[in-house]
Amino acid sequence: MSDSLPNLFLSTAHECSYLPDRAANTLFMDPRFPLSAELFGDFNRRGFRRSGDLIYRPHCQNCQACVAVRIPVASFVVSRSQRRTLLRNGDVRMVAKAPVFDDEHFALFLRYQNQRHTGGSMANPDAPTYMRFLVGRQVETVFYEFRTDSQLLAVAVVDSLPDGLSAVYTFYEPELPSRGLGTLAILSQVQLTHALGLPFLYLGYWVEASPKMAYKSRFRPLEGYRNGRWTRL
């Protein structure tokens, strides 16, 4: 860790985002503390994530189900089904964009939320709420568009870290399930991380008992942060 450390705060109990009928607590960094790239990387390597300006980690007294996971990209092996996803999307190009509001992105985000996360915390946000959710003031972030010649298919929000990239959030066209756009976004970020000469793509939290988190275990090898160290899952 850096010599100058921020205060950490523990939230009151709130509804768990991953497992039904459970309460959760969240440990978070003082958002007023200046966040350098080094400090952000330190916290990320210790299982923290970013949502807007909030750097946080689940901290539940009687549950350790949330496991921060990352892909060591030099060892990553594309599965046969993932290779088919790449072939199906041979007409898609990835384009880097600045992390600023874009009407086309926002319309896609709303379609995605309304069909894939109905009733979630980000259902029907206004534009400022949407941007506060995805972008942090002190973090280097890029919006990667996935496009064909005629259509925006997906947007991956990605943070830069000293030791890799962090897949913050991806939203995509919900009417095109056969393309496997979520898988395509992760595969493309693995390729980008490797091209940048960085070792890890961080995927956030994996919860073994949560069906909506199952897709992360399909990217192998996968490392998890448990008991203060990263090990292969």
Short description:
The protein is built from 5 helices and 14 strands. The chain is α+β, with helices and mostly antiparallel strands. The chain folds into 2 domains: 8-67, no CATH class; 69-232, Aminopeptidase, CATH 3.40.630.30.
CATH homology group of the largest domain: Gcn5-related N-acetyltransferase (GNAT)
User: Helical residue percent?
Assistant: 10-25%
Q: Provide the low-confidence segments as ranges.
A: none
CATH architecture of the largest domain: 3-Layer(aba) Sandwich
Average pLDDT reading: 93
Q: What about the largest sheet?
A: 8 strands, mixed
Radius of gyration: 17 Å
Name the descriptors:
233 residues, alpha+beta, Aminopeptidase, 2 domains, eight-stranded mixed beta sheet, four-stranded antiparallel beta sheet, 5 helices, globular
